[in-house]
Structures are given as structure tokens and as C-alpha cells.
């Protein structure tokens, strides 16, 4: 969602703020702004549009030194209250322009607070919920910024990550967090705040992760922490192992293409440490601690949003196939409001790339109150999900910058497969010999993924012929249906093509009414027992004028006379194919976006981490 940066140190703040905002562009935004505190007081500059518009706006001032100061805050806004505009952009200030605030989140009681402030003579300049925060802090300000912030927080309802500076308090930045992510970077003679680690990597890899309702006060030489009551709190410093180059494009045109190509390495990294090789291969999942309680479970619940929910849907098939246990894949935003039935013996798995997804965190907290033990699958060390879950399994995908998830998805699948296989062994539904064979197949997936990527030009050529299709339908059965869901999402996310996914057996139950000559149907066909069924479905859509693409194994010939085009993937065991079959779909979506002249890294209206409802 919104991106926040802040800097206090001995250098000019403007370049640091702009650079940090650039590193957060992947979060999605429609306007940008900065506030700098220096010899000329508190100066605010902001504008609607991409960050380049703001850079051009402040270019001459920054070069001449008229926009100078060694502390400041910056923001990229993803509109919630009020349309994208200069006036609705952050930072927002109090009436006198002495206090500036940047905010990620939603203040749920802002209308009530606004009415109360207007009754006290405050005039508002924007339509945003954030502006009430600046006025509320000013209302409580009596020479002590920290105390004013603490008083204001008592009246705020909702979610927020805040960066606050004050002209009358020029030696510190106040940072606050509740439900929205905020990281503190600890440098030498300088300290920073940011919504995510990539904005900090150029300056430091030593960070503090703020917990809910914690307050940080940043000085040039130190950082102090307080709880919501203003009591001093100790905080442990963490070290980020990523280097700055991990969050750079590395010669690729876009982050998304880079991250698609990083999948073989990410799959290897996620798998390697979890395989033991003695007389026979085995899975080592000490991090989530299989014990006797697992054997008592009667159900697995996997809860997630978006792409992570698609990984959970594949997980449903995997747990039922390998471990023979009933499994539900739940959409977190539905689960949290559905009054679901909990059993403390359930195995409750939460999946989130960022570990900050608001609905997913809310569902996790609800399940915990019902007595569930939470197992998290996430990519981000130190994220809220990682800190609050009982057990954590990291994907080790490395930083994922593009909004549309690729390597996070396939590494989530790798984690799900490992848990499902080990659970199957525990339940006696697969033998050690069978497990050994499945581990061997998992170890081959990275090489198979590399082989698919080596053939990407064929996918690019196909996209150049089909990118202007007005409708694209993805269909499959079993595991292939779950991959169809993710593939349709990728295409609509970044190319803005109307794309749908459905179980192929449902074709005649409605979707076929939409099929005509303007339609491309992508049939994912890797479930060997159902090839004849899929061939029949493909013939049905071709008879109605659709162009057809089949994704299947390299040694399968049964679709040669049916499909208009075939993408072939290396042979593996059928349940593991989603890690491979999704890659051509990722590439197809990417090349369609590029053909349409779109930026696949920053699709409109979307954010990398959905930290509000």
C-alpha cells in the first residue's frame, strides 16, 4: 500500500527520501511528497502522479539548496480517502504548517474526529483521513512532541504507520506503528524509517521491527522506544542478510522478469536446507516441529489472500493427495467474517509473502483466540506474521519487488509440498520409499524450471500474436485448475486483460456461453489420467471459434492435432506440476503487458502488500 520513508542524520535529506521512495514504488501509488526540516523551517512538496513528477517539481530547489535540511519524511500514496490529487497527497500538516505527518493505513473514526476538530476551529485542506492526525497532534502539543503524539494515539481507531516531524522539535522523528508495517534502520550518525527493508539497504542492514502500538523516537545518534503508554521499552536489533543488489534489476528490463528468472535459485534455496541425505533422503522440518499433536489432527486449514490463496488451494489438493486428510483453503477476508467452526486440533497454516497482509493477520488472530496453533509460511523475516505465529517456515525467495508475485508463489508451493509429504509419512499414507521418490522429484524442479525459462522466446512470440485478445480463459482439472486461478490473476493484474479461470468440467455449466472468436483458451493439461477429458474440452471451445493453447508435458502427443499452440514442460509427477506449469503463464502475462506498453512491475490500482482491508 502506501510507502513511508524518513531520515535524520548529517546528510541532505532530500536525496535519501527520494531514493527511498523509489525503492518503495512497487507498493503501488498515485502521488508522492516529502517534508524537509532545515534552516528555512518545515518545507512540504507533493504532487499527484509518479515519483518523477515530484522529482521534477523539486529539482531546481534541491539543486539550489533552497530545499535543504538533514531530516525529513516522504510518502507515496495509494488513495483510500479522496481522489489522487496534490492536496490529498502526503505529507499533511497542521493549520500552521509546523507539524507534518505521513501515514500508511486507515483511520476508521476520522469522520468523527474531523467533526470534533472543526468544532474547535480547525480548517481542513484535504479529503483524507490522515489530515486529522496532524491536527490532533497539534491540538495536544504543548512543547513536547512525543507526549502530543501519545495523546493523539489514544483517540485514533484503525490501522497506521506514522512518520512525524515538528518544526519546534527539530532534532527527532517520531515513528508509530499499529497493524501497518514500519521498519527502523540503524545507521552510523543517521537513522531511518521505511515501510519495507529495500528502502534501507543502501544505508544500513541493521534494523528494528516495530511491534503493534510501539513508538520509536529517532535522533541522529540513537533510537529510543516506548510502548503506547509512553513507558521506555527495550528493542532487539536485527540484521538483514539481503544486500542492496538483491533489490536491483540486475540487467533485466523489469523486476518481474528478473524474479521469474530467479525461480530456479529460489526453489533450490527453499528446498536445500530442508532435505537430509543419509542412507535415504528425508525431510527436515525442525522449524515447524512435527510431533504427536499432528497425528491427532482431523483437518488442515490453509488461510491466505490473492496469490497466496492460490498456493493454499494447491496445498488443499496436496494435503488430501499425500496425507489423505480433509483440507480447507480459505480466503482470509471471508474467513474472518464468516463465524467459522474451529477445532483446536486443526492444523492452521497461514500464507503471506509480505507477512503484513491485513486480512490474513486478522484471520490468524481470530484462529489463535479459538485455540489453533498457527504455522506461518512467509518470505519476510521479522514480519508481523513471522513474529506472531507459533511456528514459521520461510520461503527464502529473497526480495520480491514486482507487485505481481512470481517466485514467492512457487516457493510457497515448495513449502506446502514439504509439509504435506512429511505429514503423509507421519500418517502412514506414503511410505519412506515413496517419500524418497518425491524428494528426488522436488530436487529436479529447479532444473526443470530453468529449462522452461530457456525456451521463453516461444512464449514471447505467442504473446506477440495473442496479446490483443479481449478474453482469455484458463481451464484445468485438479491441480491444473488451481494453477489456472493463479494464471488468470497474473494476466489481469499486469496486462489488464479480462481473464477468468474455471474447472474444465464446468465448461458446459456456463462459461462456454462466453466463448467466441475473440477468446483465447489456455488449457493446462498435466494430470495424466484426465488427458482425454481435457482433449474433449479443448475441442468444444475450438468448435466455437476460440484460439487454444495447451500447456502439457514434453512427451505428450495427444493434444498435437487439437491445440493451436502447445507449450511443453519437463515431465515430473503430476501433483508437483504447478511449480512448473505456472511459469509459462507468468511469462505470457509479462510479455502481454510489455506488448501493450504497460509497466508490469507497477500495475494500476494495485499494491504489493495489502495492509488495509
Description:
This protein has 613 residues and is of the alpha/beta class. 54% of the residues are buried. Helix 7 runs antiparallel to helix 14 (432-454), helix 14 runs parallel beside helix 18 (578-595) and helix 15 packs across helix 18 (578-595). The mean pLDDT is 88. It has an eight-stranded antiparallel β-sheet, with helices on one face. The chain has a seven-stranded antiparallel β-sheet with strand order 5-6-7-8-12-13-14. The chain folds into three domains: 3-247, Aminohydrolase, N-terminal nucleophile (Ntn) domain (Glutamine Phosphoribosylpyrophosphate, subunit 1, domain 1); 249-450, Rossmann fold; 455-607, Rossmann fold. The chain starts with a strand and ends in an 18-residue tail after the last helix. The protein has 18 helices and 27 strands. Helices cover 35% and strands 24% of the residues.
Strand order of the largest sheet: 3-2-4-1-10-9-11-15
* Mean pLDDT score: 88
**CATH topology (level 3) name of the largest domain:** Glutamine Phosphoribosylpyrophosphate, subunit 1, domain 1
Strand percent estimate: 15-25%
Total number of helical segments? 18
Structural class by secondary-structure content: alpha/beta
Count of discrete structural domains: 3
Helical content, roughly?
25-40%
What's the story with the biggest beta sheet? 8 strands, antiparallel
- For this structure, what is the CATH homologous superfamily of the largest domain? Aminohydrolase, N-terminal nucleophile (Ntn) domain
The CATH class label of the largest domain is: Alpha Beta
Radius of gyration: 26 Å
Number of strands: 27
CATH architecture of the largest domain: 4-Layer Sandwich
Amino acid at each position: 500500500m502506501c510507502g513511508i520513508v524518513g531520515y535524520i542524520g548529517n546528510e541532505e535529506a532530500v536525496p535519501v527520501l527520494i531514493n527511498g521512495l523509489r525503492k518503495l514504488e512497487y507498493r503501488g501509488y498515485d502521488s508522492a511528497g516529502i517534508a524537509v526540516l532545515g534552516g528555512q523551517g518545515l518545507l512540504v512538496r507533493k504532487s499527484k502522479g509518479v515519483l518523477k513528477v515530484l522529482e521534477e517539481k523539486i529539482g531546481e530547489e534541491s539543486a539550489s539548496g533552497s530545499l535543504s535540511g538533514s531530516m525529513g519524511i516522504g510518502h507515496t500514496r495509494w488513495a483510500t480517502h479522496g481522489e489522487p490529487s496534490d492536496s490529498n497527497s502526503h505529507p499533511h500538516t497542521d493549520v500552521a504548517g509546523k507539524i507534518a505527518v505521513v501515514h500508511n493505513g486507515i483511520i476508521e473514526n476520522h469522520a468523527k474526529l474531523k467533526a470534533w476538530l472543526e468544532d474547535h476551529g480547525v480548517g481542513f485542506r484535504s479529503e483524507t483521513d490522515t489530515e486529522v492526525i496532524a491536527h490532533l497532534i497539534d491540538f495536544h502539543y504543548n512543547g513536547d512532541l512525543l507526549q502530543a503524539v501519545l495523546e493523539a494515539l489514544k483517540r485514533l481507531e484503525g490501522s497506521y504507520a506514522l512518520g512525524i516531524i515538528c518544526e519546534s522539535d527539530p532534532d527527532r522523528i517520531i515513528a508509530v506503528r499499529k497493524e501497518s508495517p514500519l521498519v527502523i534502520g540503524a545507521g552510523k550518525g543517521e537513522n531511518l524509517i521505511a515501510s519495507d527493508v529495500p528502502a534501507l539497504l543502501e544505508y544500513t542492514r541493521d534494523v528494528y521491527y516495530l511491534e503493534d502500538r510501539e513508538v520509536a523516537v529517532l535522533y541522529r545518534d540513537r533510537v529510543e522506544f516506548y510502548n503506547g503508554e509512553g513507558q521506555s521499552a527495550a528493542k532487539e536489533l536485527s540484521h538483514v542478510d539481503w544486500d542492496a543488489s538483491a533489490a536491483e534489476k540486475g540487467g533485466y528490463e523489469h523486476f518481474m522478469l528478473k524474479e521469474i528468472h530467479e525461480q530456479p535459485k529460489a526453489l533450490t534455496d527453499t528446498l536445500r536446507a530442508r532435505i537430509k541425505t543419509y542412507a535415504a533422503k528425508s525431510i527436515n522440518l525442525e522449524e515447524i516441529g512435527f510431533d504427536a499433536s499432528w497425528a491427532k489432527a482431523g483437518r488442515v486449514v490453509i488461510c491466505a489472500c490473492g496469490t497466496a490463496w492460490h498456493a493454499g488451494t494447491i496445498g488443499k489438493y496436496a494435503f488430501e493427495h499425500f496425507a489423505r486428510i480433509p483440507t480447507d483453503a480459505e480466503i482470509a477476508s471471508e474467513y474472518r467474517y464468516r463465524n467459522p467452526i474451529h477445532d483446536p486440533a486443526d492444523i492452521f497454516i497461514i500464507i503471506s509473502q509480505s507477512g503484513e497482509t491485513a486480512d490474513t493477520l486478522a484471520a490468524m488472530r481470530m484462529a489463535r483466540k479459538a485455540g489453533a496453533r498457527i504455522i506461518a509460511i512467509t518470505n519476510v523475516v521479522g514480519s508481523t506474521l513471522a513474529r506472531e505465529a507459533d511456528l514459521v517456515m520461510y520461503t527464502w525467495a529473497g526480495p520480491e519487488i514486482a507487485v505481481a508475485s512470481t517466485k514467492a508463489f512457487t516457493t510457497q508451493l515448495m513449502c506446502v509440498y514439504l509439509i504435506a509429504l512429511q505429514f503423509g509419512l507421519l500418517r502412514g499414507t506414503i511410505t519412506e520409499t515413496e517419500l524418497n521418490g518425491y524428494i528426488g522429484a522436488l530436487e529436479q524442479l529447479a532444473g526443470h524450471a530453468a529449462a522452461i525459462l530457456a525456451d521463453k522466446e516461444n512464449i514471447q512470440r505467442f504473446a506477440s500474436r495473442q496479446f490483443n485478445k479481449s478474453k482469455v480463459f484458463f481451464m484445468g482439472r485438479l491441480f491444473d485448475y488451481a494453477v489456472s486461478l493463479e494464471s488468470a490473476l497474473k494476466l489481469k493484474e499486469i496486462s489488464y486483460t479480462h481473464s477468468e479461470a474455471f474447472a474444465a468440467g464446468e465448461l458446459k455449466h456456463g462459461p462456454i456461453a462466453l466463448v467466441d472468436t475473440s477468446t483465447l483458451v489456455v488449457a493446462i493439461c498435466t494430470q495424466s489420467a484426465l488427458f482425454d477429458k481435457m482433449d474433449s474440452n479443448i475441442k468444444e471451445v475450438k468448435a466455437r471459434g476460440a484460439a487454444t493453447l495447451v500447456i502439457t508435458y514434453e512427451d505428450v502427443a495427444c493434444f498435437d492435432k487439437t491445440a493451436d499452440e502447445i507449450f511443453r514442460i519437463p515431465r515430473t509427477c503430476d501433483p508437483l506440476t504447478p511449480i512448473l506449469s505456472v511459469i509459462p503463464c507468468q511469462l505470457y502475462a509479462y510479455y502481454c503487458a510489455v506488448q501493450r506498453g504497460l509497466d508490469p512491475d507497477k500495475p494500476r490500482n494495485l499494491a504489493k502488500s495489502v495492509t488495509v482491508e
